[in-house]
Every structure is written in C-alpha cells, then in structure tokens.
User: Fold Manganese-dependent ADP-ribose/CDP-alcohol diphosphatase from Solea senegalensis.
Amino acid sequence: MFFRLCRDIFNVSASRRLTQKHRSIMEDGAQTQPLFSFGVIADIQYADIDDGYNYSQTSKRYYRSSLQLLGRARESWSEAAVKPDFVLQLGDIVDGFNKRHGASQRALDTVLREFGSSPELEVHHVWGNHEFYNFSRSSLLLSKLNTRPLSGDPAAACCSDIYAYHFSPVPGFRFVVLDAYDVSVLGREKDSEEYKRAMSLILQHNDNEDLNCPPAYGKQRFTMFNGGFSTKQLDWLQSVLTSADDKRERVTLISHLPVHPFSADAMCLAWNFDELLAVIRSHSCVVCFMAGHDHDGGYCRDEDTGVHHLTMEGVIETPPNSDAHAMVSVYKDRMVLKGSGRVEDRVFPFPQ
Ligand SMILES: Nc1ncnc2c1ncn2[C@@H]1O[C@H](COP(=O)(O)OP(=O)(O)O)[C@@H](O)[C@H]1O
Assistant:
C-alpha cells in the first residue's frame, strides 16, 4: 500500500539495418518522425475458460477475451502510420490454468497465431511465471517463445540456460531481454542445485505454510511465483552495459518482474531487485526498464539515475470493452508512449 501510494505520488524483423527512413531522419536531425517505434503488451494470460478472479478475489480476469484484446493491439500496430519495427511481449502469454486442462500447447499456438497473422511483425518474448506453470525451462528454450535468434548474433545471448539476450534495432539503441526467473523454483527440476538454492532463499524470508502466500512487510516478494537474477546474469548484464556505455547507446531493459519499488506493488518485485538497480546505477546508458506482472501497472522515474521504470497494465485484468497495449515512438532525446485503453500516455525524456 505504501509503495502504491509512493508510486502514485511519483506518477508524475525489426530491421537491424539502418533503413533509408531512419538514415534520412538521423542525418537531417528532424524530430517530426521517430527514429523507430515498437509495440508493448503484457500479461495476456490467455486460456479458453470462463472469466474468474485473481487470488484475493479483488480483480476480474478475462481469460478468453484477452485474445480479442491482443487482436486489437495487433490491428492498431499494423494500422499505425509508422508501423512498429518490433513488439515486446512482457511475459505470462498464457495462463497457468491451461496446464490443468491439458491445453498448454493449444493455448500457446492460439496466441502466437493471433500475433503471427501479421507476418512482418517481429515479437520479442519475455518469460513470466505462467510460462513455467505450463512448460519446462528446457521446452521453452526449444519453443517459439525463445526469440534469442532474432538478435541475429549468437554472441548476444547470456548463456545456454539463462534466457537473456540483447539486440540493437537501430544504431545507437539497444534492448536487453532479462530472465527474472533465472533464480527460481519455477522452471527448475526439483532435484537440481538451482531449485534447492532458490527454495532455501524463499525459506529464509517466508515462513508461511503456503509459499505462494507473501510474507510480512518488506519481504512480500519472497514467494514461489517470483524469482531473481543470478550473479552470472548480473555479470553478463554489466558487460553488455559497459559496452553500450562505450558506444553511447540508449538502452532499454525488459523483464517480466519489475525492479523499482515505486513502479509496482512490493509483492511483484524481483527478489534481488536492489542488485539489478545497483547495476543500472553503475552505467550511464540505461534509459528505461519495462516490466509486467503487476496487472495494475505502474510508473516512476528513478530520482538518482533518471531511468524510467514502466510496469505495463496486464491484458488479463482489462475488461473486454477496454484495451491494454502501447506503441512507443523513439526519438533522439526521448521515447513517447501512446497508450491504448487503460494504459496512460507518457513521455520518457532521456537522462542527459
Ligand atoms: N496471496 C496468495 N496466497 C497464496 N497463493 C497465492 C497468493 N497470490 C497468488 N497465489 C498463487 O500463486 C500463483 C500465481 O498467482 P497469480 O495471481 O496467478 O499470478 P500472476 O499475478 O502472475 O497472474 C497462483 O497459483 C495463485 O493461486
């Protein structure tokens, strides 16, 4: 609640080649047209089941209509005057209930078909907790939800078992997809070292019988539905950002779990959000952090770094007569987010 209050107060193939459009805009410095643009959508959580509620029965979940909302997002991206170069899907593409109904693959195919009916649309997928309710980590790595190959560079991936990679759609700009469940009990075999380490971390902070039930104030994030970033991934991110600093690139980080306490409910943060924030703080290139998971959405601009932390509103808790997607236009000195439905319009000036 405290965090929500603070947050409200603070609420103040994509072509890797430089296209003729991008080049002429960069050369004449005109800012009327964006350098490039991209779409954003989060927490679609599609399932072919009747509407329901979240765990605390406070928010309705529209499992079937999430597909129609995705369809409208795709239409708005494909009808835009300047078409997005790519789309960021911020995780939880299908709901965990699919598993129970033996419908995981069918639901995924259905959603991907809805994304894919516009063939030129390049989608970068992030993995959320609901991906792991439906699929093992190894099967996700073999699935269409592994979009590492879109980077076009095998060296752009963190490592084989961590789903993190970076790509540069246009010179001067870079996006880093992060794996917020790299340290988690989700997606890890019960007898693996990774599972045991993650479980022991939860148990250090959470003494509830049900480990999905959040512990006391300040530790709410230590539940089984969250996770964190390993030292290996943080070291890799350091090296990606050091190189981006050297090249004076503008970097956007993408993760299912948010990392800024003023951008989301405390229950939704990555376990070691503070370590990720420390990495951001030690570099000048990061301009924005985009996440999903908290279906109410959120935003803050970090006071120290000027980095914008956006948590996108979740499609799953958006009524059928509304929408939850965005189009972001990127200029030399800022990004302009045009929200649809319950996603607010925002301008993200880049830190100097
Ligand atoms: N407060 C809670 N106490 C116990 N279990 C919970 C609680 N909140 C969520 N869960 C369980 O954790 C899992 C993930 O919750 P869910 O709300 O579906 O996640 P998401 O916000 O990612 O959609 C579900 O199995 C849900 O029943």
